Amino acid sequence: MLMAHPAVLRNLVEQYETLRALHAENGSREARQRLADVTYTLCVSTGTRDIDSALTAARHRLSGVRPADDSLVTA
Fold it and tell me: Taking 90 as the threshold, does the pLDDT of residue 32 lie above it?
């Protein structure tokens, strides 16, 4: 499976969290569509089928990123 670059995952998680904090699901059609798009992209980027799994997978991958070279740490 292709893995999204850590910067992309971080950005997607931040966008999702911001949209949720702004209650985009109850907002305008455009806000709801943006939330749906970010949710879909997170799921595709993490190989998951629901947002909870996608967020868990993204955070897990991001926790293993080294700041100096954005490699994944293998344990």
Answer: yes
Task: Check residue 2 and report its DSSP letter.
Answer: -
3-state secondary structure of 65: strand
Residue at token pair 């926790």: 63
Domain containing 59 equals 13-63
Instruction: For residues 4 and 30, give the distance between their C-alpha atoms in angstroms, rounded to a whole number.
Output: 25
7 located within any domain: no
Return d(Cα 28, Cα 47) in angstroms, integer.
Answer: 28
- Establish if 33 belongs to a structural domain: yes
Q: How many domains does the chain have?
A: 1
pTM of the model: 0.81
